Amino acid sequence: MFLIDDQALMALIREDVPMGDLTTRALGIGLEAGELTMRARAPMTVACSEEAVRVLQLLGAEAWIACPSGKTVPEGEMLLFARGQAEALLAGWKVAQVLIEWASGIASSAAAIVTAAEAVAPSISVACTRKAVPGTRALSAKAVCAGGATIHRAGLSDTVLLFAEHRAFGGAEALAHQIARLHATCPERRVVVEVADRDEALAAAEAGAEVLQLEKFPPAEVAAVVEALGPRWPGKVAAAGGVNARNAAEYAATGAQILVTSAPFWAPPRDVKVHIAPA
């Protein structure tokens, strides 16, 4: 599991504590020794506990991780422990707490989709899009990976995905012509084509698309495309748009090999209980 760098974490700290903690400074308690614990208030798949620990360390506290990202824990499970001056603990408390709560909400949602899909099709892949809240993409990517999903596209620079919006610039023969051009100019990349209906999907497959991304197809229509392509077609079918934990099993039963979803990014945070006391 990758780590978010200190520069990004310092930006989170500066946003919340631009000139120190006024309340702690005004009370004159900053140099007193304290301890902090964080525990899960309900079952969750944990994400970004490493970054929460690092936030506290960057502020001068000693901190230790109890549950790494990707671990599913019950209510009451210890997530992290920290010790240090009250100034450091109180300055980092809310940044670290909210980070785990928000990221664990994403991870828990992703895990629910993965569990539902894999119960029907154990080899299926759940891929989360790049539709994270702007400015949170790296943390969001870590959270979905903690939930057992994969990253659909980290950004426009790493994959080839041909949209109708690209084809609008290519004239009547854009589909076949642009697929051929992408094969020629990006020979080390799979050519993924987003399609809007069955006929377009079959035309893209015939023209050499290696992955068909079926946008907002109901499960029955995904199954119809898979059946029409037949078992000998060497490519993969990705069902995209509207996939969530409630319908993931139905989509997995269609024969699609990939489920593409943005649902985890809108999941509610998981509640974390914080306790701070004198050491």
How would you describe the overall organization of this protein?
This is Putative pyrophosphorylase ModD. Belongs to the NadC/ModD family. Keywords: Glycosyltransferase, Transferase. Pfam families: QRPTase_C, QRPTase_N. This protein has about 280 residues and is an alpha/beta fold. It has 10 helices and 13 strands. Strand 10, helix 9 (about 220-230) and strand 11 form a beta-alpha-beta unit. Helix 1 (about 5-15) crosses helix 3 (about 50-60), helix 3 runs antiparallel to helix 4 (about 85-120) and helix 4 packs across helix 5 (about 135-145).
Observed structural traits:
279 residues; alpha/beta; TIM Barrel; 10 helices; 13 strands; 21% strand
Give the H and E element order. HHEEHEEEHEHEEHHEHEHEHEE
Mind telling me which CATH architecture of the largest domain this is?
A: Alpha-Beta Barrel
Please state the structural category.
Answer: alpha/beta
Can you give the helix content as a percent range? 40-55%
The first-level CATH class of the largest domain is given as Alpha Beta
The CATH topology assignment of the largest domain is: TIM Barrel
Strand coverage percent: 15-25%
Strand arrangement across the biggest beta sheet: 7-6-12-11-10-9-8
- Cα distance, first to last residue? 32 Å
Mean pLDDT: 96
The overall strand count is 13
Question: Sheet with the most strands?
Answer: 7 strands, parallel
What is the compact description of this entry?
The chain folds into two domains: 119 residues, Aldehyde Oxidoreductase, domain 3 (Alpha-Beta Complex); 153 residues, TIM Barrel, CATH 3.20.20.70. It contains ten helices and 13 strands.
